[in-house]
Structure formats: C-alpha cells, structure tokens
Amino acid sequence: MNNYILAIETSCDDTSIAILKENKVLSCVTKDSTKSLNEFGGIVPEIASRKHEEFIIDVFNDAIKEAGIKKEDINYICYTNEPGLPGSLHVGKTFALSLAYFLNIKAYPINHIHGHVLSPFINSEVKYPFISLIASGKTTSIYVAKNANDITEVIKTDDDALGETFDKIGKALGYPYPQGPWIDKNFVLEKATIEFPHPQINKNFSFSGIKNRVISLINNKKNKKEYIDKIEIGSSFQKWAIDILMDKLEFFKEKYNTSIVAIGGGVSANSLFKTRIKELFDYSFVPEKEYSCDNAAMIGFAFYEKYLKKSN
Fold first, then answer.
1. Could you read off the pLDDT of 76-104 as tens digits, one per residue?
2. Which residue range forms the structural domain that includes residue 301?
3. Binding site membership for substrate: which residues?
4. Which of 25, 119, 177, 221 could disulfide-link to 287, CB 3.0 to 4.6 Å?
5. How many domains does the chain fold into?
6. Where are the alpha helices (DSSP H) in the chain?
7. Could you tell me if 241 and 297 lie in one domain?
C-alpha cells in the first residue's frame, strides 16, 4: 500500500502544500505574498489570511498535478496548527478538515516548530538524539530531540525573534521586505567594525535591546544628517547575531553531550551562519534551500516521523 501524505502549511504569509510518499517528497508548491505585502512594509495578518484563501485551491491543484497522483489517492492529511497567525492557521485547518471530510480520512495537526526541527533531515535519515536551533521571523529557540515525539525546548527568546530583528533593522536601513536577506546579501566581514555587548551564554535569547540600539543609532545619524553606512551597520549587527547563536549552540552541545546539531528556520539560509556552523561542528544538518523557510514538505515529513515511521 502506498502511503500518500498531503501536508498543508499556512502559519504566516506562505501558502504551501506538499505531497509525500512515505518520507519522500513528491511535490512541494509554495505561493508567497511577498509582492503583495511589500507595499505595506511587512506582514499584515488580515491580508495574509485573505491571500491564503485566494491561493490555496490553485496551490493544492498544482501540488497534486506535480506529484502525479489524484486527490483520491491521498491516505493522510496533516496541517500546521500552531504556532502562527490565527487567521492564516485557520485557512489551512479549514481546508484540511474539509478535504479530509470529502475523502473520508483523518486530518492530523502538526506543530510548525517540530516541522522546522526535523526539516534538515528531509531526504536523509534522522539521527537521534540531536540539538536543534530554530531561528526564524517568529521564534528563536534551541530544542533537544530524543525522538520525533520527544522534542523539548531548552532555551527561547524572551522578546523578539532573530528573524524579526533582522527585518526591523533592515527596514530602518531602507531595505525592501523581506529585509533580513538584504542585510546578508550586503554583508562584508571586514566592515563589521561596530561592537555590541554580548549577553550571558546560559540565559535566554533577547533581541529587543540590540534592535533598539541599532535603530537608535540609525535614527540619530538621520537626525544629525550624517552619512549612514548601511553595510557597516548591517554587517556589524549580523556578525553580533551569528556570534550569539554560535555561543549558545556550543554551550548546549557540550551540556547535552551530543555531536549532532540541526538547524531550521529562515535564518539558517544566512551565509555567515552556514560558514560558522561548518567551522564549529563536525556533524551539522541544515535544510536544503527549498526547505529552509516555511514549507509544507517539513510538515509532511514531521507527520511521517511521528505517526508512520516503523520505529516510533
């Protein structure tokens, strides 16, 4: 029997649907609202949910077509149920439950974060136990995964997420949405000359202070009509941020005595982050590019690991 899984991801502004055969991704179609949201300077929850409603049928049809199956072939449906924007999550859940009713099968809720935790292992074998860093626009946390059904958060952010901080600083620098990748595109290590204080390694993440500090620096220069070196400010912030991540990861790697580190969330696509991870850890897993940001394939893969994998 073929176990075809349909997975739905609508936690934020990306409408994504994937088809998996067991743990193999057959298709993953994602429609983002970047162009629509760019004119507002960021994500507007009501607009994001309306875009999901607009896109989801076409994304579903494209995913089915690309996978080469019929909707009647689907054996399991899973969807992101938390965390995320309530309106966006509701669109995905409603679609999942409606389709499940039509096909007379069950729809399974999957934690969005667990999808990111397991996403580095898509197209490979998951190696437990491991430490996971999830650094995105919505959260920044470190987890210990003993198995797919035993994933524990050991440290989190007390305020802003790192991805959100990248975007807000990028916005203050005048970059278009999404602003974070623009800081990375213009990163020059030699220009990272501005020093920022480092927090204690064993404490929770906190990014509101650095966000306010950098934005105040930019605004002060604007008020004084001084030249604003976008590359210097952006590069200095990026180096500080990646240094903080590396310090925390090394601390928990030693604390939990594991040599396996997995990275998830949009910040994992950061070029400096990728370089530093390879230097610091012998065994590190980073998602393939198409799975580094929000996507339904990771939701389907998490479902497989939790419910279908023989060892569970």
1. 999 999 989 999 999 999 999 999 999 99
2. 4-119+292-308
3. 134-138, 167, 180, 184, 270
4. 119
5. 2
6. 34-38, 45-67, 86-103, 112-118, 162-172, 180-185, 208-223, 230-255, 271-280, 296-303
7. no
